Amino acid sequence: MSPLVLGALLGAAFGAGLLLVVRRLPxxxxxxxxxxxxxxxxxxxxTDVFHGVVSSGSPFYAIVRLFGPSLRxxxxxxxxxxxxxxxxxxxxxxxxxxxxVEEFRIEQLLxxxxxxxxxxxxxxVALSSGAGNxxxxxxxxxxxxxxxxxxxxxxxxxxxxxxxxxxxxxxxxVAELLALSxxxxxxxxxxxxxxxxxCRGELADELQRxxxxxxAGDPLVRALDALADRSGLVALTRFADGxxxxxxxxxxxxxxxxxxAGDIREASRRELIESGARREVAMMVxxxxxxxxxxxxxxxxxxxxxxxxxxx
Length: 312
Prior knowledge:
By secondary structure, this protein is mainly alpha-helical. It has 12 helices and no strands. Helix 6 runs antiparallel to helix 7. It is flat, with a radius of gyration of 29 Å. It comes from Kribbella sancticallisti. Keywords: Cell membrane, Membrane, Transmembrane, Transmembrane helix.
């Protein structure tokens, strides 16, 4: 490593440390209203925002707690820049992640710091080998940091899609089990309790949440309406609405559940056929652009070589 790069790294480290010390001086740091009132409300709200981001048993938990105020401030600034708190809260609920928007923004910030750290490592390696422009490498670090922030949002969307696929796969079986329990003489709440205890999966967890809300005092219809509101699936919303309507109006619940299970399986079959058709079209891309040119080259190349030999 050249003396210039080493001096730049030492100067940057010293400047960052000095900035942290100056920012934390008591006469320069103005405590927020949350920090002033928080100690008196700790018995009421004892939740820790960093438990949702990093486990308390993780070796990074102490580091996250050490930079907690900076992370909170960065999360607030990130929320002001990106916005969309309602969309994030909705997707967190659809993904089954019990976290707040602030916790998600802190995760995004950590992903961005990780991306910036990877870019910084690449820049140090490039500078130590004498290659690369410092300005371009600095831009690369910033781009990787932004990509890290956006990657967490993309990963949340993929989590929502995976959970919705699991819910759709579990819904017909759960509906048929509920129909069997109701046909055997059990009430709607007892049938939900039996199925929630017998099954494992995302939908069983949602049913357990519905039962927990009913035990807390909410009517079963209202708990089912809440399930329909927080789910982003049309089939699950129709399932919850059908249960609620059957309970309110006294219609035969077993017949409703069997009909819904049949509709869901038919919709899954249609979606599978449509997916197969889309994959068939997508398979034409490598065939047309890769296999076909190679086949034509193998077919015509010997003839071209033979013609050249005859002409020569």
